[in-house]
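Methods — Computational structure assignment.
A single polypeptide chain was analysed. Its primary sequence is given first, followed by the predicted tertiary structure written as structure tokens.
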Amino acid sequence: MLTATYILVSLSVEQTSIRMSLLAFQKYMQVQLRQQSRLSLAQLQYAGDWLNRLYQGGYWRKVEMYLIPAIRRAAPHTDGLLSGLLNELNGLNHAALESINVVQQRAGAAIDHSELQAEQLCAAIDTFCAALLQRLEKEERELFALARKVIVGEAWFAIAYQFLAHDARAQEARRGKAQVLPFVLPVPLPAPGAPDGAAETAGIAGTAVADTLPAVPQPLRAQA
């Protein structure tokens, strides 16, 4: 069915984006940590925050929000198979969560920031990424195949409608953010008794000041 194919392709695109984010973050942190012999508390907190952000983002995927509930509704007769697969996926999630806990505990303790700690942080990040990457692979190989077997007819159209509504909300949210006006330095008023054109000159000066302001550093985006 074309609708089922559209849905599974859309999910594969989402999976690919998440996979690229995980690999980009893993590579970035490995490069940063291996160049240092000591870690600061800020670095530990930064790593913990990004791990948590990537982990929480998994719950807002279309797979979690729409596909798995649809499989649950459509496959009561294969409950044993579905339960086993979901248990495996949850186990991988748990392994990723344990890695986050390790990083957050070390950040909370703020103890000896040694080279060993940097190696342990690298290991925790590698474990986190490996668990979620394995989950993505298992979803594509097993969960999508199960969906094709048990979801039929109108159920696929219902999922497609949910996808379209989800994308529309996301696009509206992006549009709302784009409408936020950038900060512009106010034009200073001319001093009392200043000649005509002083306001215009001041405006030009204000623009020059704005141009010389240092650019605000952009946060790391965990994307390839």
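Note: Residues 183-189, 195-224 have pLDDT under 50 and may be disordered.
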